[in-house]
Design a protein that fits this description.
The structure is a single chain. The chain is of the alpha+beta class and 175 residues long. It has one domain. The protein has a four-stranded mixed sheet, sandwiched between helices. β2 and β3 form a beta hairpin. The radius of gyration is 16 Å and the shape is globular.
Length: 175
């Protein structure tokens, strides 16, 4: 399963890491039969890497979580995404660009996470994952029988980040 060493952004001063909380608690607690996707998610991947082409408008810009098999980005947005007009416009541009590549972006605010009102967003994610149900069931059986993510899947995930050394450095593949 993916493993990070201080790469999930948050507020160190307040010990407030909502993206990490989403990954560690909400996915296993609310994704039900789809909780296995936790082991397939790529954290903080650059936009140009996930779409496989260079667009100078998105150089050095990352998404919080990417699930390549579902063409799904999950963003955990702090208050600045709601109150700062420039950030909001940038988010809309990114979402539109990713959508043009067939990638759905689901944005969950830290306020929704804090107040527990993120159910609709989880529903959007699960609707997207239902398209992969048969593949995920097969993967779950493979993991259950072998105790590991199959090598072919590991290699395909590594290919999504050719310019990023964090993949081989931070991934821990045992399930």
């Amino acid at each position: 399963m993916p493993f990070w060493n201080d790469t999930i952004k948050g507020d160190k001063e307040r010990n407030y890491f909502k993206a990490k909380d989403f990954f560690e608690n909400i996915i296993p607690g609310h994704f039900g039969e789809f909780a296995l996707v936790k082991s397939l998610i790529i954290p903080e991947i650059e936009i140009n890497d996930l779409v496989g082409e260079h667009n100078p408008d998105f150089t050095n810009q990352q998404v919080d979580f990417y699930l390549s098999q579902a063409k799904l980005v999950i963003e955990i947005d702090g208050q600045q995404h709601k109150t700062d007009n420039i950030t909001r416009a940038s988010d809309a541009t990114r979402d539109s660009y990713l959508n043009s590549k067939g990638i759905l972006t689901v944005r969950i605010t830290t306020n929704q996470l804090r107040s527990g009102t993120y159910g609709e967003k989880i529903g959007e994610i699960l609707d997207r994952l239902k398209r992969l149900k048969s593949c995920l069931i097969t993967l779950k059986k493979l993991v259950k029988s072998t105790g590991r993510i199959p090598l072919v899947i590991k290699k395909s995930l590594l290919n999504y980040c050719p310019r990023r050394s964090f993949v081989s450095k931070f991934y821990c593949w045992d399930y």
